[in-house]
Give the backbone structure.
Amino acid sequence: MNHKELIADIAGKIDLTKTEVEHLLDIIVDVCCEQLEGRGSIGMQSFGVFDVKKREERLTVHPTTQKRMMIPPKLTVNFKQSSILKDKLKNVPS
Amino acid sequence: MINKDKISAQDIVEILAERADISKISAEDFFKVFINSLEEALIVGDSVKIKNFGTFKRQWIAPRKSIDVNTNEEIIIEGYYRINFTPFSTLKYAVNKPFAYLENVILDDDDEEPYRDADIDMDVDADMDEDADMDEDVDMDEDMDIDVDMNIADIDMSDIDMDMDVDMDVDMDMDESPKATGDDMNESFRHFEEQVNEIKDILSEIKLMNNIQDQQEEDSEKTTEYQEPATETIAEYVENDKDDEITVPEVPVETVGTVKEENSTEIEMSDVTKVVENALPPKKKKQVWYILLLLLLFSMTAFVLSYLFFEPVKDKTNSLLGISEGITKIGKQLFDSITTANTANTVDSLDNSIVAAETDSLETDSLETETDTSPIEDLSGNDETIPRITYNEFIKTITLDIGNHLASIARQYYGSPYFWIYIYEANKDEIPDPNVVPIGTEIRIPKMDPDIVNPNDPKAIENAKKRARLYR
């Protein structure tokens, strides 16, 4: 399901047009992005937590060239599902 | 706008309502619906892509075996679905902005990171150079030691007769030495025979010195360390000497003025005296003297070079020269006499060296007398620096209370407790012991020159301390 399908899905469930839904969704995404850029975290109850983690620098060996590489530290967005969502997923037949 | 570390769904709803200009209720409704459809899609197994944010995907985590940490029993962790979130590239980049300038760095086998390479290379090179220097130094020292040892071993201690045996080993040494060209040697031998008496005198003097050197050997052990770095330059200098022998005499001449009681020469002198003590059939003796003179030249050149190029040595020597002006006078006289005698001849240069050796021994003697007298002068100088002060004018007369003492009064009136001594001197009649002033004693506070009781002047405080020491 891509962005458009999601908007259509939401628009079908609520009394709003697709453009309105898209606008609101954009705002939510903006808010989330701003928060993550500031290294903050977002806790959505019943869904999960987004937060930013720092991956430390490390040394690796390039598999083909066999050259040692220094991988610089990196900030990444992590998502951890809540236990509620995990339980919901458990009931799904695989 | 967003300044919390952690925001919840509620905060998002509030911000959404604010920005979209809708009621909170409708915003919350919308958010719930959004999360609902997200979850529904994920539960079904669909991946959800949100533009500019990221992609959610359901992933099956297979069951796996594990061991209970507490009971050591095998347990099976059941498989489950996990929601994976892959951030959009724009979000990824925006989050990583603080470290965005960093790039993967390829490391070569030998080196560290490239931006450190320059420094490390420099360090390594410097280390290498130092190592090389050290090796050379050690070699030099070892050669010297071996030479001296051979001499000592070859010379029979008990045999002081004029035996004409020439030791082959010593010959070998002579050949190696810069000035041992055949004709020069013969000439200088004759010269030596003429100077046997002189040498005997020097010998006796050196024997006297030996007593002193027993004490100095400890010192010389310390100084060997700082002598080492100069050895290389000496070697170079000696090589130059081979080419141009005429320049050689100038060096010891210069040294006579400057060497004095410097430890570096004493080390060599101690070696010299050892050899002389163990003397010796005269032929050998002559050879030995040659070597001694060479050693002397060595030490003198070492000192001159270290004096010229090694700052601490210069400072030390200058300070020593400052103590013993008399010695410098002797040195100057000798300098003059030697320069006149110096006729740019290798034999003459040897003569000069002998004179230099003589003067060295003289100088060490005169230094001793000098150092004996100097501390007395210092002591006598101490008393003169403290002038007498008469206390005529007084600011105030106070009565000593409980908890007050001279220092606290001094702090009150002069600004520093160290000036209590002036109050004490002004009231010497009433106060028998400055440390125990009875309560109720009437104390007159003298009016002092503000320069003398200036609490900001360390000299004034120092004077007060000196004065206080007189009453101890």
About this structure: Strands of chain A lie at 41-44, 48-55, 58-61, 68-71, 74-81. The mean pLDDT of chain A is 85.
